[in-house]
Amino acid sequence: MRVLVIEDNPVLRANLEALFAAQGIGTRFAADGLTGLQAALDEPFDVVVLDLGLPGMDGVRVCEALRARSERHIPILMLTARDALEDKLAGFRCGADDYLVKPFAGAELVARCLALSQRHRVGSAHQLVIGSLTIDRRNNRVQRDGQVLPLQHTALQLLLVLADAWPRTLTRSELVERLWGEQVPESDPLRTHLYTLRQVLDKPFAVPMLRTVHGVGFRLEADI
Ligand code: CA
């Protein structure tokens, strides 16, 4: 799981960094709304923790812009400074999925983030469709042109990560981090699994879907 935290208070940022790290959750931080918005559009985060009161572009505007500009639904947890009804309403009106009132217990924030990322995984369409490729989220059954692809383990996970990010390109390090987190095997495992994925996903078909973007990374491309 990757969480983006958009928060201008450096003390709170440091606390959250330690908190998420202790749970093995990868985080990225932004100290203002505009930087945070850009980060949220650049990288496929599982949850965005968004402070309401931010310098420049405030949380409500970041939330609205994210909803308007992102192709997928990014779960947003809004942090409000006080238990004010108006703040909560503003958060929900602009499209936040959940909110937490400061000061909050760190464990609660982590629990809410996990719940949000799960809910959206379950609640989103069960079927992910990219060109002739369909992935059934309930059983991770993958088909291309109606043919079931025998993908297992890491090659399947690799495809799921690329499909979640579609149509974005993921860098080699993003892929490695998403697949192995901190425990990266010593050999170059990504290479092997990219090869395996290509054999199953692309080899039997005329148009390859797994594309290498030279100097950048890898992405899926719709074939129809
Ligand atoms: Ca603030």
Detailed description of the structure:
The chain is α/β, with parallel strands linked by helices and 224 residues long. The protein has two domains: 2-119, Response regulator (Rossmann fold); 127-220, Winged helix-like DNA-binding domain superfamily/Winged helix DNA-binding domain (Arc Repressor Mutant, subunit A, Orthogonal Bundle). It is 43% helix and 21% strand. Strand 4 (76-80), helix 4 and strand 5 form a beta-alpha-beta unit. Helix 2 packs parallel to helix 3 (59-69) and helix 6 crosses helix 8 (189-201). The chain is elongated, with a radius of gyration of 19 Å. 28% of the residues are buried.
Order of helices and strands: EHEHEHEHEHEEEEHEHHEE
Question: CATH topology of the largest domain, what is it called?
Answer: Rossmann fold
N→C terminal distance: 31 Å
Major sheet description: 5 strands, parallel
> What is the assembly state of the chains in this entry?
single chain
What percentage of residues falls in helices of 4 or more residues? 40-55%
What ranges have pLDDT less than 50 throughout 5 or more consecutive residues?
none
Output the structural class: alpha/beta
Name the CATH homologous superfamily of the largest domain.
Answer: Response regulator
Give me the secondary-structure topology:
Elements: E1 2-6, H1 10-22, E2 26-30, H2 33-42, E3 47-51, H3 59-69, E4 76-80, H4 85-93, E5 98-101, H5 106-123, E6 127-130, E7 133-136, E8 141-144, E9 147-148, H6 153-165, E10 170-171, H7 172-180, H8 189-201, E11 210-213, E12 217-220
Parallel strand pairs: 1-2, 1-3, 3-4, 4-5
Antiparallel strand pairs: 6-7, 7-8, 8-9, 10-12, 11-12
The chain binds calcium ion.
Calcium ion (CA) is lined by residues 8-9, 51, 53-54.
